[in-house]
Amino acid sequence: MMSREQRKKAAGALHEKLQILRSITHSRALSDASIIMDASEYIEELKQKVVRLKQEMACEEAAGGGALQLKHSSSSPSPAVTVETLAGAGAGAGHGFLINVFSDKSCPGLLVSILEAFDELGLSVLQATVSCEDTFRLEAIGGEMQNQVDNVDEHVVKQAVLQAIRTYSSQGCRQQQEERY
Fold first, then answer.
1. 95, 12: one domain
2. Where, subcellularly, is it found (predicted)?
3. Residue 181 CB partners (closer than 8 Å, separation 6+)
4. Which of 43, 79, 130, 181 could anchor a disulfide with 103, C-beta 3.0 to 4.6 Å?
């Protein structure tokens, strides 16, 4: 059992640690429980900030990387893009494309840039599976729209997707960073 003096010493040490915690977290709370709750919220904010900074670093690396290197390895720092022609996938036009894009880094908004490139080519997205959490993965089936020119092939689609990624990497990530501050 603790003596009265030991309890006083322990209570004083706890109070001192809570005051340090209070000053670190910029808490104005007076009660011990409130100081701890404020510290918990502060830790969550720091975790979110770390995630945001990691995303910004990934965006800056993608923007500063210059030309994209195409590799099919999951450890590749640059996006891998594959395009295959599918027969009968278009909305009446006769063919479409299976488009796969993978990057081990993700920036919010990359999907929008790629979908805009599809639209510019006259491709409608018939089916898509997308993951943007930690990595970026897109598998889409795009079909040519009826009133579009028929000169779209695998190479044209691949180049349009790569250009969308390059444009996004050089502009999109920077704009998002500026909007945050």
1. no
2. Nucleus
3. none
4. 79
Domain co-membership, 87 together with 60: no
Asked if residue 135 and residue 91 are part of one domain, the reply reads yes
Asked if residue 75 is part of any domain, the answer here is no
Looking at the structure, tell me whether residues 174 and 86 fall in a common domain: yes
84 - beta bridge partners? 98
pLDDT in tens, 114-127: 999 988 888 888 88
Mean pLDDT calculated for residue range 52-56:
78
90 and 175 inside one domain: yes
Give per-residue pLDDT as tens, 87-96.
655 444 457 8
Buried-exposed string 55-88: b where 16+ CB fall within 10 A, e elsewhere: bbebbeebbeeeebeeeeeeeeebbbbebeeeee
- Edge to edge, what strands does the sheet with 136-144 contain? 80-87, 95-103, 136-144, 123-131
> Whole-model pTM?
0.51
Residue 95 lies in a domain: yes
Beta bridge partners of 136: 103
- Quote the DSSP letter at residue 146: T
Structural tokens at position 46: 């720091």
Cβ(140)–Cβ(99) below 8 Å: yes
∠ CA 141-163-125, nearest 5°, is 20
Q: Which two tokens stand for residue 78?
A: 């640059």
80 beta partners: 102
